[in-house]
């Protein structure tokens, strides 16, 4: 079939469309195909989100740590100057 020859569609989609055409249930089969792909996308997004959250937390911690160090370095320098540069 042209769908198989194009190589764009997975074999599952091609077979479900063929079954839908043969049984006269093409809209229902296309809805099922859409549901399968929607579930795959949802799983991929959930996986990406669970991977991205720890990375964002680490980056935020680095930014906050950098700001804290930038604020305290001048204070430490002033204290050392006042105590005689020990």
Q: Work out the radius of gyration.
A: 29 Å
Number of beta strands = 0
Q: Determine the number of helices (DSSP H or I, runs of at least 4 residues).
A: 3
Number of domains: 1
Largest sheet: none
Strand-and-helix sequence, N→C? HHH
Inertia-based shape? rod-shaped
Beta-strand residue percentage: under 5%
- What gap, in angstroms, lies between the N and C termini? 84 Å
- How confident is the prediction overall: mean pLDDT? 92
Oligomer: single chain
Q: Structural class of the secondary elements? A: mainly alpha
Helix residue percentage: over 70%
Report the uncertain regions: none
Features:
mainly alpha; 3 helices; 86 residues
Précis, in short:
The chain has 86 residues and is mainly α.
Explain what you see.
The protein has 86 residues and is mostly helical. The chain contains three helices and no strands. Helix 2 packs antiparallel against helix 3 (26-82). The model has no long low-confidence stretch (mean pLDDT 92).
